[in-house]
Here is the input.
Amino acid sequence: MTVLYYLQSIRSTKLDRFMKTVTKLGNAGAVWICLAIVMLFFNNTRKGGMALLVALASSAILGNLVLKNLINRDRPCWRDPSIALLIPEPEDYSFPSGHTYSSFSAAFGLLPFVAAPFFWLALLLASAIGLSRLYLFVHYLSDVLMGAVFGIITGMIVASFFI
Here is the structure.
């Protein structure tokens, strides 16, 4: 938990605001769903938009419905309630991070369908969303790292069906 407490030690008003905003982008895959919808309107990005939606649905089912309930890992904020949360306390289990899983699934689901700069922007956003979950003290480092690994695998598998 050293990483989590280090992140708590560098908290500031500006970082708090930034991390809350970044995490909101990942709430229910909002930013990724919006991107997918826009992509569906154009012939040259339609397959990528479909892959993105399937990747998000797959990560939600596998991460939030299957793995979280199978593993039943308490969140850090449940184990140490002395840390003031900046967001509402999540009610589901911790492992894996659903925000991170869906974000990396989205980024890697997009990989074959977008130009490299757009993929790197998606990857940067996915990483920032994962970091925000640590900063906000709602996930352990392993939740976020494994969410990223599961997301990469899911995104690449889904994308391969649309190529």
Summary: The CA atoms of residues 51 and 79 lie 37 Å apart. The chain has a mean pLDDT of 95.
